[in-house]
């Protein structure tokens, strides 16, 4: 791609990922949540894959198996924590109070697990599509 | 008043996205339509849906369309 797109991507990329984690951590207080945060982080990696070639990105996103395993781990984290919260509801899930970050009980961990699952699935889709497109 | 202006703008962008012959331009106009729809959701006091619409439809769907156009043909016959 162009030089301008490459330089702007180098500057902007960490801020997009940081904004995604902000959305995930404040998911119980502000609009957003696990899915929106994962989609934002995945679109940041889509920008990276568009701007640079496959060979430059390949050492940043090294192994397919790691991303795949992260997605499965996020899914089981959601299952286990959700089941725990369902059976021991009064002990684990507290109601959140406004403007205080550590107030929602296990909701932060649920949002982080959803973020890991969605973002790693989106990165896997993007990377395999782009690899097949550059192979020709 | 602002809502009607945004609806007319979205209608114009949708017709433009159908009628353009260069498919890359058509996809970019479609991303603009998604941003207009996200603004409409934000005005109607649904900021959660607006965030998801802007992240998924303007980011990821555009990327998938661009990959598909790169694999097939760029101009409509």
Radius of gyration of CA atoms of chain B, rounded to a whole number: 14 Å
**What share of the residues of chain B lie within helices?**
over 70%
- Give a short account of the largest sheet of chain A: none
What distance lies between the first and last C-alpha atoms of chain B, to the nearest angstrom? 39 Å
User: Mind telling me the C-alpha Rg of chain A?
Assistant: 17 Å
Order of helices and strands of chain B: HHH
| Strand residue content of chain A | under 5%
Instruction: Outline the low-pLDDT stretches of chain A.
Output: none
Structural class of chain A: mainly alpha
Low-confidence stretches of chain B: none
- H/E element string of chain A? HHHHHH
Total DSSP E strands of chain A: 0
Apparent shape of chain B? flat
SSE-based structural type of chain B: mainly alpha
Largest sheet of chain B: none
List the helices and strands and how they pair.
The complex is a heterodimer of chains A (136) and B (77).
Chain A: H1 3-25, H2 34-51, H3 54-58, H4 64-87, H5 89-92, H6 107-135
Helix pairs in contact in A: 1-2, 2-6, 4-6
Chain B: H1 2-19, H2 23-43, H3 47-71
Helix pairs in contact in B: 1-2, 2-3
Give your account of this protein's structure.
- The complex is a heterodimer of chains A (136) and B (77).
- With 136 residues, chain A is mainly alpha-helical.
- Chain A has 6 helices and no strands.
- Chain B is mainly α and 77 residues long.
- Chain B has one domain.
- The longest helix of chain B has 25 residues.
- Chain B is flat, with a radius of gyration of 14 Å.
- The mean pLDDT of chain B is 90.
């Amino acid at each position: 791609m162009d030089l301008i797109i490459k330089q702007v991507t180098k500057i902007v990329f960490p801020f997009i990922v940081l904004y995604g984690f902000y959305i995930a951590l404040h998911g119980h207080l502000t609009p957003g949540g696990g899915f929106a945060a994962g989609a934002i982080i995945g679109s940041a990696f889509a920008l990276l894959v568009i701007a640079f070639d496959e060979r430059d990105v390949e050492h940043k996103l090294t192994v397919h198996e790691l991303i795949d395993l992260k997605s499965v781990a996020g899914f089981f984290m959601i299952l286990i924590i959700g089941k725990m919260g369902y059976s021991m509801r009064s002990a684990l899930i507290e109601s959140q109070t406004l403007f205080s970050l550590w107030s929602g009980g296990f909701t932060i961990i649920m949002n982080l697990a959803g973020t890991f699952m969605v973002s790693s699935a989106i990165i896997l889709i993007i990377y395999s599509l782009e690899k097949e497109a550059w192979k020709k | 008043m602002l809502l009607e202006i945004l609806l007319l703008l979205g209608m114009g962008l949708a017709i433009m996205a159908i009628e353009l012959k260069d498919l890359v331009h058509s996809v970019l106009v479609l991303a603009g339509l998604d941003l207009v729809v996200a603004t409409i959701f934000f005005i109607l006091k649904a900021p959660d849906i607006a965030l998801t619409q802007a992240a998924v439809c303007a980011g990821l769907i555009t990327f998938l369309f661009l990959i598909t156009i790169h694999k097939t043909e760029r101009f409509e016959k």
